[in-house]
From TrEMBL:
CDD domains: PBP2_LTTR_aromatics_like (cd08414). Belongs to the LysR transcriptional regulatory family. It comes from Cupriavidus basilensis OR16. Residues 4-61 form the HTH lysR-type domain. Pfam families: HTH_1 (PF00126), LysR_substrate (PF03466). Keywords: DNA-binding, Transcription, Transcription regulation. It comes from the Bacteria. SUPFAM superfamilies: Periplasmic binding protein-like II (SSF53850), Winged helix' DNA-binding domain (SSF46785). GO terms for cellular component: protein-DNA complex. GO terms for molecular function: DNA binding; DNA-binding transcription factor activity. This is LysR family transcriptional regulator.
Length: 308
């Protein structure tokens, strides 16, 4: 006994609709004997007659009427499954999980990219995961994230590609007190005697190293009194009067009003904020997100590959 195939269901539905094997064979462009054998095979496979045969054609049995509903539903579900698979393969539906550094979510560039992606891909479920850059890189490699908006991608990491979105500079953040000495700061050397709230070295070693080197170039080692794991935490500690901090300039958008920001003339080093994705696995949905990145950033959206 052979398995029921989709052609059996199509042939059965055609015969049921036409009420005649001869008429159905014409509609299906197959011979009447061949169609009769297919219907007989189907009935043998099911184990019950689906039609009553008479001189003017065929009529569904009670079992045949029930089977007709199920056959139509089965073909519909198969067609829907085929369509879903095709749309997923083309990146038109499914889910897209994006990591974003908490301090970069409110960036105008980030918001414009997200808005364009949503407009162009309304059937893709976009999920945002607020993660630090190191966490994002690990999650992209393990395929927990489809991509990430992050900084500090290691240039020698061949497993990740990146597209630059914008360049981020650092500024001085300090409690907004007019009498504070740092208020008059114009260069890094002016804050050499201040207490600092600093980024966790284990969470962001590249950022730690860049800022330590900038202070060393200015002739001092910062007196670190408090450690924070991310920019919002550091800003909260600064607002609480724990000390001053060197933070990304974009963090001013979501800072408490009790914090003042100063651009220091010799704090010129910065970092590229990138959309980062796997170099080995680029799904159609990643391609669609890259298209939104290119739309927003234009010619600046050129992929930069890690070195192997």
């Amino acid at each position: 006994m052979r398995n029921i195939e989709t052609r059996h269901l199509r042939y059965f539905i055609a015969v049921a609709q036409e009420g005649s094997i001869i008429a159905a064979s014409r509609a299906l462009s197959i011979t009447q004997p061949a169609l009769s054998r297919q219907i007989q095979d189907l009935e043998a496979n099911i184990g019950v007659p689906l039609f009553e045969r008479h001189a003017k054609g065929v009529q569904l049995t009670d079992a045949g009427m029930s089977f007709l509903q199920d056959a139509r539903q089965s073909l519909l579900q198969l067609e829907q499954a085929r369509d879903r698979a095709h749309r997923i393969a083309q990146g038109q539906t499914g889910s897209f999980t994006l990591g974003i550094m908490p301090s970069y979510l409110a960036s105008p560039v980030t918001l414009a990219i997200l808005a364009h992606f949503r407009e162009q891909n309304p059937e893709i479920l976009l999920s945002i995961e607020p993660l630090l850059s190191l966490q994002q890189a690990q999650a992209i490699r393990s395929e927990e994230l489809d991509g990430g908006i992050m900084a500090w991608r290691a240039p020698d990491d061949a497993s990740l590609n990146g597209i630059a979105l914008y360049h981020e500079r650092f500024v001085l953040a300090m409690p907004a007190q007019p009498s504070a000495p740092a208020k008059r700061a114009r260069r890094l050397a002016d804050i050499a005697g201040e207490r600092f709230v600093w980024f966790n070295r284990e969470k962001s070693s590249a950022q730690h190293n860049l800022l330590i080197a900038a202070c060393a170039k200015a002739g001092f080692t910062p007196h670190i009194v408090q450690i924070g794991t991310d920019t919002p935490t550091i800003l909260g500690l600064v607002a609480a009067g724990m000390g001053c901090a060197l933070v990304p300039a974009s963090s001013q958008r979501h800072a408490p009003p009790t914090i003042a920001f100063i651009a220091l003339a010799d704090l010129t080093d910065g970092v590229d904020i990138e959309f980062v994705y796997s170099a080995a696995r680029r799904s159609p949905r990643v391609q669609r997100f890259i298209a939104s990145v290119r739309h927003v950033t234009g010619k600046k959206a050129r992929p930069v590959r890690g070195k192997s």
